[in-house]
Amino acid sequence: MKRLALACEQIAATTKKLQKTTIVADYLKSCQPEEASASAVFLSGRPFPIWEETTLQVGGTLLWKLVAEISGRPERDLTDAYRRLGDLGAVSAELLPARDGSELSIMDVQSRFRQVASARGPAAKGAYVSDLLTQVSPLKAKYIIKIMTGDLRIGLKESLVEEATAKAYGSTLSQVQRANMLLGYSRETVRFAIEGRLAEARMRLFHPLGFMLASPA
Questions:
Q1: Domains by residue range for the chain, with CATH
Q2: In angstroms, rounded to a whole number, what is the distance separating the alpha carbons of residues 141 and 5?
Q3: Per-residue model confidence as pLDDT tens digits over 134-178
Q4: CA–CA gap between residue 141 and residue 4 (Å, rounded)
Q5: What is the reported pLDDT for 210?
């Protein structure tokens, strides 16, 4: 998770589209296949693939409460930080206590997200999220919270993740876009790209399609 967080920091630090794409491509190439697939979903600003019905059901109010509890800071400090930064993930990076944290992998974080999603009620969900946030460094917590809220806010769109996937695995952008449209989410697309099977992507029953814009005739 640390490498993903550092890559996100690099992406946020540049306004250049090509540079953002290169950072994502280099990161994906450095990952094992399963980790790259899960990372593509996270980099799209989602905890789960878009076609899944799974949701965390953790609102901003609960996350705010957990950050306040873990940081031990008064409400005033959180409010001031949020007014300056405009993002709870960034607030957590500034206010949570410094710690190296556990070396949780991308797959570990994905597993924790599924635990949160399966938990019943705010108390149970909050316990899982609190346990996760207390095990990681403030930088990792920053991007875990951003993923949970569904907005990385680093100038990275799914289209750039598609471009990075094509660049990382020697495919064309049109191949990646077509596969992503048919498969419905980035994770499976990355796996097909790694295996050189993008052309084998097919529409499947009961899986949504990512429609592209039509061209006027």
A1: 2-45+156-200 (no CATH), 60-149 (1.10.3260.10)
A2: 9
A3: 999 999 999 999 999 988 999 998 889 999 999 999 999 999 999
A4: 12
A5: 66
